[in-house]
Design goal:
This protein has 269 residues and is an alpha/beta fold. The chain is built from eight helices and eleven strands. The longest helix is centred in the C-terminal third of the chain and has 19 residues.
Length: 269
Amino acid sequence: MSVFISYSHRDSDIVEKIATYLVSRNIHIWIDKWQLNHGDSLITKIQDAITESSVLLIMLSTVSVESEWCKKELTAGLLRELEEKRVVTIPVLLEDCNIPLFLRDKYYADFRNDFDQTIKNLQDSLLKYTDITLNRVENKNYLIDWGIDSGLRDDIFYFNIDSVSFAKDGEYSVLCTVQILGNDKVTRLYKQTIGKNEEHIIIGELIVKLAEMDKRDNLRIRLANNDPVRNYLIVKDDHLEYEFKMEIYTRRLGSPLLLRVLCASAFSA
C-alpha cells in the first residue's frame, strides 16, 4: 500500500524533498509528478491512487487550501475515513494558512520550523499505516525485489531479508538472503513493542543501521562464479548495546532472458 500526497504544484520543492526522504526510508509514495505519464487520464489515475493508498498526506499551504483539485482529494480522503472508520488523512502544515475545518482536530506534521525532526516523526507515523515488508528498488541499471519478516524465534529477535536482483542488461539474477539474530537487549526492546503497533520502529532502526554499515564498510559481495557464498558478520552498537549476528547467503540464479524464452515457449505450446 502506498502513501498518496495531495499538494499544490506551487509547493513542489518542499513536497518533493519530503517525498524523496520518505522513499529513501522504504515508504512507497504516490505523487503525480512521479507516477503520471503523458496521455494518462488524470481523474482515473488519481481516483485509483486515492482508493488504493493506505493513507493520504494533505499538504497545507496558502495555495493548496484554495485549490479546487486539492479540496476534492481531501474530500475523498475524509469520505474514506467515514466509510472505513480509521485514520486515512494526515495533515502536513507547510506554512501559515487557514486549515480546513475538518482537519482542525487532527494532530498535524508541522514543517514551518524544524524540518529534520518533523520528517522523522512523520516517517514513524506513516510506518504504522504502510507495509514495509515488501518493496521494489529500481534504477536505470538494476531492479531489486525484496521482502522482510521478523519476530521471535526460540525467544530471540530475528529479522530476515530476501531479495532478488536483476541487472537489466545482465545474463543472470542474484539471490541474497540475510538472516539476523539480535542480542538480549534487542530482544527485550522488541518484546516491549509487541501489541502496541510499534514493531516497525525497531525494524526501521535496524534497516537504517544496515544501510549505514554498508555505506561505511562497503559490504559488497563479489560472485566470481555460480557457487553459493556465505558470509558471517557481527554488527554492534556499543552506545545502544545492540548486537546483531548476521548470515548473508548469495548465489547466482538462471538467466532472466532464458527464463522469458522458456515461459514464452510454454504458453505458446
